[in-house]
């Protein structure tokens, strides 16, 4: 049974505005086709930040600006090469992983060890064989940075990230958080990994890996704009999503779509700004793909403001699932509120509760801020997102779903800013401590 919706008139205006505008599509194609890859420290990222800032100013956000900070930029240099020496001589297509270490010009030669999924147990089982070898892993079920760190600590000669998707596709992904790694690392295609595994069954596989990356100090920028609250302007509601992509491709789903959703919600709510009791801040984060650099910087630089932050909504690879919902990050009080909200909106709203530390919500958790991402339900189109690959291109993103997700997010933020029944979910010091422990890279396995 539907209950009274105090925001019904505003909801209708948001939905009508969203349903009759293709701003999301224009912004997505501008980022992905007009600008292209947006890797941290490149001209592509700078152009994207300026584009987002122009949109924030066009929507008349308050104090729209670029927020600069220094970081260590990783430059690929000449393409990496991986050559099998034994039992056959042939080159294997590969792609250097950001923040992995360079080799001597002639490369490094070593025998190969297959770690399979690369879990802590897998590493422990092979720990005496890792030193001096190249290790290959799919990193299935574990973040690649963890497997890389453990193998480097145990003296591996290099790290080979094996893709799991068929089609000789190469992927990418940083192996450390904005600082130089200690061993070289590359990705290879799924079929190349299968070939290496077959040959390992027959004997020793020896490889030569050459990588030419360099590091240099640089500056990058978050993009920030506010809609100032009418009654409690010092209290914050935040929506952010990372604007950067890897340099391998245009990063349409990860995270052009997420950044576009931030812009679209800003556009929708700017037209309803007189109804926002608390300030809503929109942020395009820099450097998420290399260690959440921009979100860490903003959350720490604005720590005093974060003490009055009511909620943070993270827009990273926005869900295409239906029915719409929120994926709270261990905020149990969110579920009863969404249940009531579903009755208000006369629609099913999914509530998930999950815990992970690998996106831009995490630095805000460390400041005690309750966080969530836009989630989806059981009905979802079976599409492949080509995560961290060159094929992550904009025609694979459903503009209808992106528009609907933005309208849903705008309605959520309206309530986070103006509904006095919004649940109090600030995290205690003990809860923050638990999250810090969860996000810390486990101590490397000793040699």
Concise account of the structure shown:
With 447 residues, this protein is α/β, with parallel strands linked by helices. The chain has helices at residues 8-19, 23-35, 43-58, 120-130, 144-153, 190-202, 252-270, 293-301, 303-306, 334-345, 362-365, 399-418, 429-439, and strands at 62-75, 81-86, 90-92, 94-96, 108-114, 134-137, 158-162, 185-188, 206-210, 214-227, 232-242, 278-285, 309-314, 322-328, 350-353, 371-379. Helix content is 34%, strand content 25%.
Descriptive account of the structure:
The protein contains 13 helices and 16 strands. By secondary structure, the protein is of the alpha/beta class. The protein folds into two domains: about 10-75 and about 215-440, 3-Layer(aba) Sandwich (Aminopeptidase); about 75-210, Glucose Oxidase, domain 1. The strands form two sheets. Strands 1-10-12-11-13-16-14-15 form an eight-stranded mixed sheet, with helices on both faces. β6, α5 (about 145-155) and β7 (about 160) form a beta-alpha-beta unit. α1 (about 10-20) runs antiparallel to α12, α2 packs across α7 and α7 (about 250-270) packs across α12. The chain is elongated and about 70 Å long.
